[in-house]
Design a protein that fits this description.
globular; TIM Barrel; 9 helices; single chain; binds zinc ion; binds D-xylitol-5-phosphate; 239 residues
Length: 239
């Protein structure tokens, strides 16, 4: 039996995976909202961590991640650190049940970047490197070999619900050919049924979607998840 917690490993690469961002979930009823999107067909959960410094917003810390891990014990947790000091958060989020921790190339390059990748791996956690819309794809290329996933931001990080920036799609032309079969290319920001096709066509195979998924009522999210993945819409039969 493949490990259900590891869709990045067990599902063939380039099969699009849908990763709802819990930033758009109902924080007052987070466990139920997380379980709902998984029951409705999401492949993993994306956990957005903001420090009020690297980005002008605060979101959640390791205690919330641990609570999500408890609510969804078998779900792959993809933790996106939008923080100035990612080194400080490796152990807290590994302890909180992260399956993958990604950090921004804008805050760690060269030796510090390689050391951080190694520290995450040494905790038995998968690693991702992230680049912001203005950052050229060339900046992540020295590290692509060492990570499990490259995450291209398609909005300026800090807030959910922003408009998709299509200019970032060309970054896949450089990054995708450099990836092995066991690595993934993720896109984050402004993804919904209307923008996901361009992202999939460009070569992205992990699609983060916050507001597009969570703004649908609980029990009625299968169709939007399926459309983002690239399947045909499923008629909403509930309620
Ligand atoms: C942006 C976050 C994204 C964002 C996605 O700072 O990294 O994950 O919440 O939300 P939507 O899909 O609403 O753009
Ligand atoms: Zn994110």
């Amino acid at each position: 039996m493949p490990d259900p917690r590891h869709p990045l490993i067990t599902i063939p690469p380039e099969t699009p995976l849908v990763a709802p961002s819990i930033l758009a979930a109902d924080f007052a009823d987070l466990g139920a909202d997380c379980r709902d999107v998984i029951a409705q067909g999401a492949d993993l959960l994306h956990v957005d961590i903001m420090d009020g410094h690297f980005v002008p917003n605060l979101s959640m810390g390791p205690a919330v991640c641990a609570a999500v891990r408890k609510a969804c014990p078998d779900t792959f947790l993809d933790v996106h650190l939008m923080v100035t000091d990612p080194d400080a958060y490796v152990d807290p989020f590994a302890d909180a049940g992260a399956d993958l921790i990604s950090f921004h190339v804008e805050v760690r390059e060269g030796r510090a970047c390689r050391d951080l990748i190694r520290r995450i791996r040494d905790r038995g956690v998968m690693t991702g490197i992230v680049l912001n819309p203005p950052t050229p794809a060339e900046r992540v290329m020295p590290y692509v070999d060492a990570v499990d996933l490259v995450l291209v931001m398609s909005v300026s990080p800090g807030f959910g619900g922003q408009a998709f920036i299509p200019d970032v799609l060309v970054k896949a032309d450089l990054i995708r050919p450099a990836l092995r079969a066991d690595q993934r290319l993720e896109i984050d920001g402004g993804i919904g049924p209307e923008t996901a096709k361009a992202a999939r066509d460009a070569g992205f195979d992990v699609l983060v979607a916050g507001s597009a998924v969570f703004r649908q009522p609980r029990g009625s999210r299968t169709s939007v998840i399926n459309q983002i993945r690239g399947g045909s819409p499923i008629p909403n039969t509930s309620g």
